[in-house]
Amino acid sequence: MKGKWKAVTFFILPFALLFAAFYLAPIGYAIKQSLYKVERQGTFGKATEVFGGLAQYERVFSDGPFWESIGRVLLFGIVQVPVMLGLALIFALLLDSGLVKGRRFFRLAFFVPYAVPGVVAAIMWGFLYSPNLSPFTAVTSNVDLLSADFVLWSMANVVTWVYVGYNMLIIYSSLLAIPQEVYEAAKIDGAGALRTAWSIKIPLVMPAIVLTTVFSIIGTLQLLAEPAVFRTFSSAVTSTYTPNLTVYSTSSIPNFNLAAAFSVVLALATCVLSFAFLKVTQRGGDK
């Protein structure tokens, strides 16, 4: 029995140490920092960090631009996530249908955008959107894709382009795990390709769709690279355009204590939304 526990400890300990060092410790440090504030004696006095209790959180909950940025990314997610996952599901079903020739090529072609770093993708699309730099001047000269009305959806297009292939591979892998006997039974019952996809494939890959949705919810609230890059192309993107950009801008002042409080509230909001979505989908699956 002792030997068994030694083996378990041997395999778990490296993960536990890394998890504590790179996940739990930063969270604890952020919470600790959020409970302090900086005070000065006079205008040019030395800055001293003192315990402030919930003072930073009072500032967070009274910060209008921060909550506007929360609402902005929620709107972003409500529109962009279904479009992205819908495309990923369609592409995965097409690859699994047998109607598409050259599956390996298309799997790679769909996944390649995900291999492009987010900052590079944002810069590339920023040039394509720019009226003065874009090769598609017939479009950009008539529609300002970097204006306040369109810039959020321009960023949504970048995120969709990058992550459709990634989510498609997750769903496609789930499709490959479905036993062939299920398809054979459906064929015997007279189910066509569309009926099989709707009544068999989609329900069976629903756990993968739920997983990708949770990842997308988390990613939406953490949106940073695209707005940070688009600030250089568009004046419509402010330093508080998204929650993560607010955290970054606040820490650059620098006001690390307030930035830590923003981060803690954002993390809690992300957890609440993710777990709420999981609960809703679990209840739907139990019915």
From TrEMBL:
> Where does the UniProt entry say this protein principally localizes?
membrane
Checking Gene3D superfamilies in the record gives: MetI-like
Transport in keyword set: yes
* Tree of life domain: Bacteria
Q: Which UniProt keywords apply?
A: Cell membrane, Membrane, Transmembrane, Transmembrane helix, Transport
Q: How does it sit in the membrane?
A: Multi-pass membrane protein
* UniProt subcellular location: Cell membrane
Q: Which residues form the ABC transmembrane type-1 domain?
A: 70-277
UniProt keyword annotation of Transport present: yes
Q: Which GO terms describe its biological process?
A: transmembrane transport
Task: Quote a single Gene Ontology cellular component term.
Answer: plasma membrane
InterPro entries, A to Z: MetI-like, MetI-like_sf, UgpAE/MalFG_permease
- What Pfam families does the record point to? BPD_transp_1
The family annotation for this protein states: Belongs to the binding-protein-dependent transport system permease family.
Q: What is this protein called?
A: Carbohydrate ABC transporter membrane protein 1 (CUT1 family)
Q: What is the lineage of its organism?
A: Bacteria, Bacillati, Actinomycetota, Actinomycetes, Micromonosporales
